[in-house]
Amino acid sequence: MGRSSPCQVEGEIRDSDVVRFIRMRAAREWKTLLALGVLSFAGIGLGALSPLLIRRFVDGLGVGSFQPQLVVGLLLVVVTSKALETYLRYYFEVSYNRVAKSFIGELYGHLQTVRLTELKKHTTGEYLSRILDHTQYLGRGIVVLYPMLVVNFLQASVTATVLFLLEWRLAVLTVGVLPVSFFCVRWLNGRQRMAWDTEREGWERAVESLREKIDGLRIIKAFNRGRFFTLGFQQDVSRWFHSVRRTAVYSQLTEAALSRATEVLAILLLIVGAGFALRGWTSVGSVIAFFWYVGNLYGPIQGLVAWNNSKQQIIPVGKRLLSLLALPPEEERPGLPFSASPTVAFRNISAGYDTKEVLFGVTLDCGPGKMTAIVGESGSGKSTLVSLLLGFNQPTQGGILIDGRPIQEYGTRDLREGIVFSSAEGFLFNMTVRDNIALGGEYTADEIVEAAKVAGIHEFIMSLPQGYDTVVGEKGAKLSDGERQRIALARAVIRKPKILILDEATSGVDSKTEAQIYERLRDLGATLVVVAHRLSTIHMADQMYLLERGSVVCQGRHEELLARCPAYRALFEKQLVHERRAAPEASPPTEG
């Protein structure tokens, strides 16, 4: 997929859009948030009891009174509080991962509705990073961000109240120092967010770099360029690491401005409190309880630090994820049904990619139930015509007619089910042969076998260790090019298409087997549109069109074009010379 700047779409999404989205999704999780709130408030209440019990116990010791019931009560409160805190953390983690899981499915489902032209605006690595990695941050934000803010402020308020009850002078000193830390944090916020945005972009690039180099491993090994690509990948990872280091600096500075300062403050409070006790301004029990409980202020303060850090991470991450949801879905529209063998007509079609035109005023007709071949050199525009018929791209001029009616008048579902495509790539999923042919459809075993026979692959499948239940590996890695292509062709055939498009779909098959496949495909009664470089077998087509530089230069049957079209004759003779030169070097034809 072509790369575009991440800011192209993210720049249109504001911080407030992310915040609004998080609030909306958090409202859906009200039961979870309510449970988290109840557990958090229970923990806060138990924590507030501890210093009061400690003060009574220590002051009792000062007058020679040992109260075992206070010891038992304190132990029960502390153990229960820690157990509740442990469960609360577990519940938090499970909850935000559950939300992330749901959001992952939602994002992938949305991408299924988006046009390919829109999807090409981002790389595969960006999609992998955003869907699998970024969703966890947003899930944490939906479940934790606002509850964390409320709980930490409540806990800080309760803690401050208890501290004032224990010793108001020490409490004034404690609360008075905290605003300095918050001003420092506010200054660091903007820098931290920019650093985090850069880190996420670097991570996406590193993931895309790794994916590309794994996909191209065969080429890398064939050209012995392992060291070159390893160094390139290490540079991509190093750029990401530098951004991580910068993010870590701002994160630690933010934490130091709050929690580290609070820890230093606790020591100062102990010293000052000891002086108060020596002067008789307060009791020893109050100082000890204050020093012990002021540690409870670390929790909400650190929680606010974590909340701040999470917010700085979630905003840029949320923009990236919302940019995927903002991709416009393809319009689902009702419309006309397909006939059994429809005609297809391209009328004065011009089309291209970005600002580059590839087709110029192309007009051609595909007869009902007939085989129409579109031939030409690479780059002549053949595959662009196919992408227009499939709806992957839109023409800049002209239109496509099916049975004489504009293609826009047909229902989206009818188009997807009536027009079936098979290409030279022969893409297979890491599933069994049976599943790759059925592809989730409800087909009988006989229908699957019949489709495989039409594609000329049944006998080969039966020779596999588990037959149709053999797993083909990632992208069909356990099979040859020809075997993958024919399984993919069987996947197209089983859908009983009204229009069957073959874009070099049998390029990995020997000429004899290819001719037999075409003969069986003609018997299906579908309108066949065949795109090919190799001319040795498609001479059986009912109509042929030769494209040159995006325009039709001649049309007719094979014999007619040989007789009156010099360009076609030159292309045909070039192909024959190529095949004759390759024949002595080629291995004997096989089923693959």
Structure overview:
Helix 2 packs across helix 11, helix 3 runs antiparallel to helix 4 and helix 3 packs parallel to helix 6. The protein is of the alpha/beta class and 592 residues long. The radius of gyration is 35 Å and the shape is elongated. It folds into two domains: 319 residues, Up-down Bundle (ABC transporter transmembrane region fold), CATH 1.20.1560; 239 residues, 3-Layer(aba) Sandwich (Rossmann fold), CATH 3.40.50. The protein is built from 20 helices and ten strands. The N terminus and C terminus are likely disordered. The strands form two sheets. It has a six-stranded mixed sheet with strand order 6-7-8-3-9-10, with helices on both faces. It has a four-stranded antiparallel sheet with strand order 2-1-4-5, covered by helices on one side.
Judged by helices, strands and strand pairing, the structural class is alpha/beta
Proportion in β-strands? 5-15%
Name the CATH homologous superfamily of the largest domain: ABC transporter type 1, transmembrane domain
**Strand arrangement in the largest pleated sheet:** 6-7-8-3-9-10
By DSSP, the count of extended strands is 10
Number of helices: 20
Q: Please give the share of residues in helix.
A: 55-70%
Return the domain count.
Answer: 2
Structural shape? elongated
How far is the first residue's CA from the last residue's CA?
Answer: 29 Å
The second-level CATH architecture of the largest domain is: Up-down Bundle
